[in-house]
Amino acid sequence: MSRSGPAPDLVVVGAGTMGAWTALRALEGGRTTLLLDAYGAGHSRATSGDETRIIRSSHGPDAFYSRWAREARDAWIELGTGLEKPIFVPCGAAWFAHREGAFDDQSVATLRSLDIPVEKLSPDDARTRWPGLRTDDLAFVVHEPEAGVLMARRGVQAVVRRFSDGGGGFELARVRPGAASGRRLADVVTDGGERISASEFVFAAGPWLPALFPDVLGGVVNVTKQDVLFFGPGAADDRWDAARFPCWVDYDLAYYGIPAVDGRGVKCAPDTYGGPFDPDDGDRLVDAETIRLAREYMAVRMPDLASRPIVETRVCQYEATPDTHFVIDRHPDFDNVWLVGGGSGHGYKHGPMIGGYVVDRLNGVPTGPGGERFSIARPRELRVGLRSGADTLAKATHH
After folding, report:
1. How many domains does the chain have?
2. Does 92 reside within a domain?
3. pTM of this prediction?
4. Which of 62, 304, 327, 378 is surrounded by the fewest CB atoms within 10 Å?
5. Would you state the pLDDT for residue 382?
6. 389: confidence class by pLDDT, cuts 50, 70, 90
């Protein structure tokens, strides 16, 4: 059953940060655009759900992502202007560096070359600035004073609301690729059998993307379970509030976290990959082993929180590529289909830039420097060093 009425110029499948910003940028560029999502914007199964994400510009020596993150920060701030509740919370971000010359140190040089504010603190200075932080095992702390927190669910919903208010169409629908005519996809098909036609299609379906295109993305995008915990500080203990404590990344120990925002606890999450996960039917329950290891980590870095109660939990997912670079590329069999995904744990903040980049590709603009990293066909070497995890943590707990 085909839908009646004129077909949109563009159908975007998936209303997470990548799909929502793509739809908005396409609408702003003059395309009639229909945005589809199976569960709605900011829903609890989405990788762009949950409450908070870090936005920071540190990406080691990779100036491309650093520039993107800085420009994306401006777009998120502009999006939140005039809203009752903020989307960007300016608390800064701290990187706990264990050695000279590693990712953290490389980030300092990159940010300074781009005139992005950054400072390198001694362990004693960091401990004085943020009481309760253990730093005696660190070489130094990198601080990005203009980094902070993005309110993830709220942000995606705000993007979709601006898109809808501007005349874009947003509907609840689970779809799959439909009929093809040569090298063009003619339509997508809903679970109810309705066919939705368009001139072009962007599939930005997050953890559902590899299942929609297994022959193309199988092995390129892998979906894993990621547990998130919120530790509850003691009564009247405001040391961990966003007004007084930064986001943090403990790169070598493979943990990251976010200070208390909106009355929630202190977010702490492992950056190691969990097991394979079904985003539709997987139970969103954290593992007991995750809790045990997180308490071990907090005993290393924030001892006063280690034995505090866990007041909330979340289960999200990574959809990660082997080298952690995104997939933003034309489908090899269809000239009018683009695949956008593989957020790899750092994609949320880049949403505004990804959306603009995709629309540029739709308009035939060349990729420019750095864009080759997003190719589906390019060999992707495994970068296991990004998440060292348990071995390094074991050494730290016996320091």
Report:
1. 1
2. yes
3. 0.95
4. 378
5. 80
6. very low
Residues 91-115 have pLDDT tens digits of 999 999 999 999 999 999 999 999 9
For residue 17, give its domain range. Answer: 10-397
pLDDT of residue 299: 98
For residue 273, what is the domain's CATH number? 3.30.9.10
Q: What does the H/E/C string look like for the chain? A: CECCCCCCCEEEECCCHHHHHHHHHHHHCCCCEEEEECCCCCCCCCCCCCCEEEECCCECECHHHHHHHHHHHHHHHHHHCCCCCCCEECCCEEEEECCCCCHHHHHHHHHHHCCCCCEEECHHHHHHHCCCCCCCCCCEEEEECCCEEEEHHHHHHHHHHHHHHCCCEEEECCEEECCEECCEECEEEECCCCEEECCEEEECCHHHHHHHCHHHHCCCCEEEEEEEEEECCCCCCCCCECCCCCEEEECCCCEEEECECCCCCEEEEECCCCCECCCCCCCCCCCHHHHHHHHHHHHHHCHHHCCCCEEEEEEEEEEECCCCCCEEEECCCCCCEEEEECCCCCCHHHHHHHHHHHHHHHCCCCCCCCHHHHCCCCCCCCCHHHCCCHHHHHHHHCC
Would 14 be classed as within a structural domain? yes
> Domain for residue 157, yes or no?
yes
Residue 106 lies in a domain: yes
Q: Is 50 left (phi over 0), alpha (psi -120 to 50) or beta?
A: left
Q: Which long-range contacts (CB under 8 A, 24 or more apart) does 128-137 make?
A: 130/94, 130/239, 130/244, 130/245, 130/246, 131/239, 132/239, 132/240, 132/302, 132/303, 132/304, 132/305, 133/301, 133/302, 134/300, 134/301, 134/302, 134/303, 135/96, 137/98, 137/300, 137/396, 137/399
pLDDT confidence bin for 386, thresholds 50/70/90 = very low
